[in-house]
Amino acid sequence: MEIQIKPKPWGKEIWFAHTDKYAGKILEIKKGHRYSLQYHKRKFETQYVLEGRVKMTYGKEEIILNPGDKIDITPGTVHRAEGLEDSKILEVSTPDLDDVVKIEDDYGRKGEGNDDALDTKLSTKL
């Protein structure tokens, strides 16, 4: 697969691997922005902070993650990352990249799955 850049209203995702067995991407979250409060039905993922500081909602907890910290997210776990600084997170996961259920979103996105056209439109408003 070729590297794909996915604009998001909170920053962007860089998809660098997507096979039938695993996926890898980098989440770039802008300071003061956060992705949807969400969970996955099938997807397992591990997020590792490369740069910046992140406030991670993980179930009912809020955890501050710094460079070198990681968190494992299992299916059904409600989670969200917020950039306390401009941040980069390395994410490795099962290949279910469209398996997302949005519970709450600062940008008005909702439902299941990803909408690349809407994300691109919203990202240009920042």
Give the structure's gist in a few sentences.
The protein has 126 residues and is mainly beta.
Number of helices: 1
The appropriate CATH architecture is: Sandwich
Q: What is the 3D form? A: globular
CATH classification, class level: Mainly Beta
User: What is the CATH topology?
Assistant: Jelly Rolls
Please give the number of β-strands.
Answer: 12
What is the makeup of the main sheet? 6 strands, antiparallel
Domain module count? 1
Query: What is the residue-mean pLDDT, rounded to a whole number?
Result: 96
User: Segments where pLDDT lies below 50 for 5+ residues?
Assistant: none
Name a few traits of the molecule.
mainly beta, 126 residues, six-stranded antiparallel β-sheet, 1 helix, Jelly Rolls, three-stranded antiparallel β-sheet, single chain, 6% helix, 12 strands
Task: Kindly describe this structure.
This protein is mostly beta strands and 126 residues long. The protein has a single domain (4-123), classed as Jelly Rolls. 6% of the residues lie in helices and 49% in strands. It is built from one helix and twelve strands, in the order ββββββββββββα. The chain has one helix spanning 116-123; strands spanning 4-8, 11-18, 23-29, 37-39, 45-51, 54-58, 61-65, 70-73, 79-83, 87-93, 101-104, 111-112. A six-stranded antiparallel beta sheet has the order 1-2-3-10-5-8. Strands 4-11-12 form a three-stranded antiparallel beta sheet, with no helix packed on it. A three-stranded antiparallel beta sheet has the order 7-6-9, with no helix packed on it. A hairpin with a 4-residue loop joins β2 (11-18) and β3 (23-29). The longest helix has 8 residues, at 116-123. The radius of gyration is 13 Å and the shape is globular. The termini are far apart. The model has no long low-confidence stretch (mean pLDDT 96).
